[in-house]
Amino acid sequence: MKAFLILEDGTVFEGTSIGSTREVISEIVFNTSMTGYLEVLTDPSYAGQAVVMTYPLIGNYGICHEDMESKKPWPDGYIVRELSRIPSNFRSEDTIQHFLETNDIPGISGIDTRALTKILREKGTMNGMITTNENFDVAEATARMKSYVVTGVVKATSCKEPYVLEPVAADAEVKSIRTAEKTEPLKTQAGRGRRVALLDLGAKNNIAQSLIERGCEVTVYPSHTTAEEILNTNPDGIMLSNGPGDPKENVEVINEIRKLYESNVPIFAICLGHQLMALATGADTYKLKYGHRGGNHPVKDLETGRVYISSQNHGYAVDMDSLDPKVAVPAFVNVNDGTNEGLKYTGKNIFTVQYHPEACPGPQDSSYLFDRFLNMMEVNA
């Protein structure tokens, strides 16, 4: 079946329908990762967006549900050059085509994703429509999509009730975490370490996994949780997760994070959490032209001068001109475009990064940041 991608600027791409055949309007973004398409599809940070994969062949190793970063896929749509319909991988449990169909995600294959990506880089991220209706009207479609705005996605992707993830006995390789809303297998290790409160703003599984592998007990809280609820449990540390959408939309969450900042509890924040902490302490954020999404972004540690290759997924950044050096100072910078990639908060046990140290798959260069967080909790104990 034919499918069409219509961009907000009137550009039309014709391809083949994959997944669901329903019509969708969404923000079109691109990801440069060569692998990890399942992790991209199940990353809550893509809620409200349709993802273009710049790597030309997607789906060749199939779907392995153990690799999912959340309980379901989140993008509104999926756009690829070529879809591999016959995966070759001993771990494969499904095809990407069936996975998209099952989860009602429309997509399109067979288009020139390089040309599409060049448009998004030159003109910036824009809205688009994926449709199988051959009788579409471009003017009518572009008029409809101009009013589309990504809203309410943090609340939509966050868990609805708190739940606890604990390390288990050494002979148990996998523990199923069961609550009223989810069942997810998480690999753990023996021992009981520090107690970490993880504020779920649209968290990837591997954030909690990275803490559990280090022996921590992790309590995951919904995004609407108050600072008092978290602090009353006396956690050893607090994690602010990644998540989707415009950080400035989360006014209530920002107010609660401001209270967490005033506490003496060590805090480590990733991606959206990094942006929300900056907003909570008086800095500003702005939307990037086309964002950073992929597994090969170089970031420089300003203290050591060392460069790390990082996994990233964000469309907003912290404005360095709005940062009060008495509150926080830059800790990492993006080598490609000079945007901020992390902050160290003055006189506080708080550090934040824009990129994903829990990257999976992707470069593991920055996983040491979780060890830094553990050391911070140990010193503060």
From TrEMBL:
Reaction(s) this enzyme catalyzes, per UniProt: hydrogencarbonate + L-glutamine + 2 ATP + H2O = carbamoyl phosphate + L-glutamate + 2 ADP + phosphate + 2 H(+); L-glutamine + H2O = L-glutamate + NH4(+)
Listed transmembrane segments: none
Domain of life: Bacteria
One GO molecular-function entry: glutaminase activity
Residues covered by region (CPSase): 1-194
Annotated residues for binding of L-glutamine: S45, G243, G245, L272, Q275, N313, G315, Y316
Top EC category: ligase
EC number in record: 6.3.5.5
Entry-linked InterPro entries: Anth_synth/Amidotransfase (IPR050472), CarbamoylP_synth_ssu (IPR006274), CarbamoylP_synth_ssu_N (IPR002474), CarbP_synth_ssu_N_sf (IPR036480), Class_I_gatase-like (IPR029062), CPSase_GATase1 (IPR035686), GATASE (IPR017926)
Residue span(s) of domain Carbamoyl-phosphate synthase small subunit N-terminal: 1-131
Active-site positions on this chain: C271, H356, E358
One protein family per Pfam: CPSase_sm_chain
GO biological process: 'de novo' pyrimidine nucleobase biosynthetic process; 'de novo' UMP biosynthetic process; glutamine metabolic process; L-arginine biosynthetic process
Keyword terms, alphabetized: Amino-acid biosynthesis, Arginine biosynthesis, ATP-binding, Glutamine amidotransferase, Ligase, Nucleotide-binding, Pyrimidine biosynthesis
Associated pathway: Pyrimidine metabolism; UMP biosynthesis via de novo pathway; (S)-dihydroorotate from bicarbonate: step 1/3; Amino-acid biosynthesis; L-arginine biosynthesis; carbamoyl phosphate from bicarbonate: step 1/1
Protein role: Small subunit of the glutamine-dependent carbamoyl phosphate synthetase (CPSase). CPSase catalyzes the formation of carbamoyl phosphate from the ammonia moiety of glutamine, carbonate, and phosphate donated by ATP, constituting the first step of 2 biosynthetic pathways, one leading to arginine and/or urea and the other to pyrimidine nucleotides. The small subunit (glutamine amidotransferase) binds and cleaves glutamine to supply the large subunit with the substrate ammonia.
Subunit structure comment from the entry: Composed of two chains; the small (or glutamine) chain promotes the hydrolysis of glutamine to ammonia, which is used by the large (or ammonia) chain to synthesize carbamoyl phosphate. Tetramer of heterodimers (alpha,beta)4.
NCBIfam families the UniProt entry points to: CPSaseIIsmall, PRK12838.1
Protein family membership: Belongs to the CarA family.
Protein name per Swiss-Prot or TrEMBL: Carbamoyl phosphate synthase small chain
Lineage, uppermost ranks: Bacteria, Bacillati, Bacillota, Clostridia, Lachnospirales
